[in-house]
């Protein structure tokens, strides 16, 4: 997986880029505006969201699937002054904006902020409705990537993306294969009231923050072998999983609040919600996080119990898990959830091996 912000440019190229940004900043500062200036991408924590995660586009999607592209574009143009309704990523994006507001209060010239990018394969003709909807809700989203029917995955690295959220499992798999943290978003069956003052992010452990190496032991050899394996390798850190770098990016922003003695008022809170047992297999997880220099605010070891009821109490803006039955249980109880299609768990459902389609010769 990639680091927080890879940087392999030469010094002369970096210098030219710095000059370009300095000129852009000066031009922006001369334009009197109440809107905050977008942060420099290499300093930001960049969250790329698809239009179907940011907004509820079920009706529009149905037109596209049943009547084709031309009818879909015509419908969007005819209704471009009607704001789209919020989608599953909407509360998450609002919470990111709140964190930015508080960071700017503490660090007025700070550029270590969340930067939200709309990453969509929509055609540019649909862009007016998307822009109107973003302005209607007063969202701070200035950077767009509209690829006109082509996959946007190739642009994720160019936008220095730290996290990509989509409704398309295929695109998410492609992003993870490229080393980018990504997940497929699901809309909960019921709505919960979420915090307006604190961004809450909940992570599963194995195959999300960590690799699936321990989960492979469980699936192939059973729990007793897993417990023995974890005890034996307790002091050996687990390999990183696809969302480790996103937790790292959150931690970087949390430390900016801690540096101003604002730990108790930090507007970012992270949760580990794992099916692991604490006594039998929890120590390796906590020692791995420590070895990475990362903190998790709350760690919940459920020993195989359902995650949904605990997540109801946490009320995260987003919950990441690699197994669909945990996602289904969470969404049934009102939690906005995101599936991370990674690791051996994709071959199983509720502990049973899913029959894999035969590969074509």
Summarize the structure.
This protein has about 350 residues and is an alpha/beta fold. The chain has helices at about 10-30, 50-55, 60-65, 70-80, 90-105, 125-135, 170-175, 215-220, 225-230, 245-260, 280-290, 310-315, 325-330, and strands spanning about 45-50, 55, 85, 115-120, 145, 160-165, 180-185, 200-205, 270-275, 300, 320, 335-340, 350, 350-355. The protein folds into two domains: about 40-185, 3-Layer(aba) Sandwich (Rossmann fold), CATH 3.40.50; about 200-350, HAD superfamily/HAD-like (Rossmann fold, 3-Layer(aba) Sandwich).
Structure notes:
The structure is a single chain. The protein is α/β, with parallel strands linked by helices and 361 residues long. The longest helix is centred in the first third of the chain and has 20 residues, at 11-30. The strands form 3 sheets. It has a 10-stranded mixed beta sheet. The protein is globular, with a radius of gyration of 21 Å. Helices cover 40% and strands 16% of the residues. Strand 4, helix 6 and strand 5 (143-146) form a beta-alpha-beta unit. Helix 9 (223-232) crosses helix 11 (278-291). The protein has 2 domains: 41-185, Rossmann fold; 199-349, Rossmann fold (3-Layer(aba) Sandwich), CATH 3.40.50. It is built from 13 helices and 14 strands.
């Amino acid at each position: 997986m990639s680091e927080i912000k890879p940087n392999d440019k030469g010094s002369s190229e970096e210098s030219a880029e710095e000059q370009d940004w300095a000129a852009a900043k000066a031009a922006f500062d001369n334009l009197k505006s109440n809107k905050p200036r977008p942060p420099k991408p290499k300093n930001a924590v960049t969250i790329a969201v698809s239009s179907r995660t940011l907004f509820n586009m079920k009706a529009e999607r149905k037109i596209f699937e049943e009547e084709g592209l031309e009818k879909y574009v015509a419908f969007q143009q005819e209704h471009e002054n009607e704001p789209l309704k919020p989608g599953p990523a909407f509360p998450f994006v609002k919470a990111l904006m709140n964190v930015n507001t508080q960071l700017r209060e503490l660090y007025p010239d700070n550029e270590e902020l969340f930067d939200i990018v709309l990453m969509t394969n929509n055609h540019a003709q649909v862009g007016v409705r998307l822009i109107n909807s973003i302005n209607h809700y007063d969202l701070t989203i200035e950077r767009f990537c509209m690829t006109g029917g082509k996959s946007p995955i190739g642009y994720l690295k160019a936008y220095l993306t730290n996290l990509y959220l989509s409704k398309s499992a295929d695109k998410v798999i492609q992003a993870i294969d490229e080393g980018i943290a990504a997940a497929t978003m699901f809309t909960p069956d019921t709505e919960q009231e979420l915090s307006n003052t604190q961004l809450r992010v909940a992570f599963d452990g194995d195959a999300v923050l960590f690799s699936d190496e321990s989960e492979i032991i469980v699936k192939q050899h059973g729990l007793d072998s897993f417990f023995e394996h974890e005890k034996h390798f307790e002091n050996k850190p687990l390999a990183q999983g696809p969302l480790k770098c996103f937790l790292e990016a959150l931690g970087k922003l949390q430390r900016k609040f801690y540096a101003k003695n604002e730990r108790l008022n930090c507007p970012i809170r992270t949760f580990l919600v794992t099916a692991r047992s604490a006594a039998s297999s929890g120590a390796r997880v906590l020692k791995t996080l420590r070895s990475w220099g990362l903190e998790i605010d709350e760690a919940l070891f459920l020993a195989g119990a359902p995650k949904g009821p605990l997540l109801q109490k946490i009320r995260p803006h987003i919950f990441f898990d690699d197994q669909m039955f945990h996602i289904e249980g969470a969404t049934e109880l009102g939690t906005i959830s995101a599936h991370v299609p990674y690791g051996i768990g994709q071959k199983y459902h509720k502990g049973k091996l899913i029959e894999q389609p035969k590969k074509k010769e």
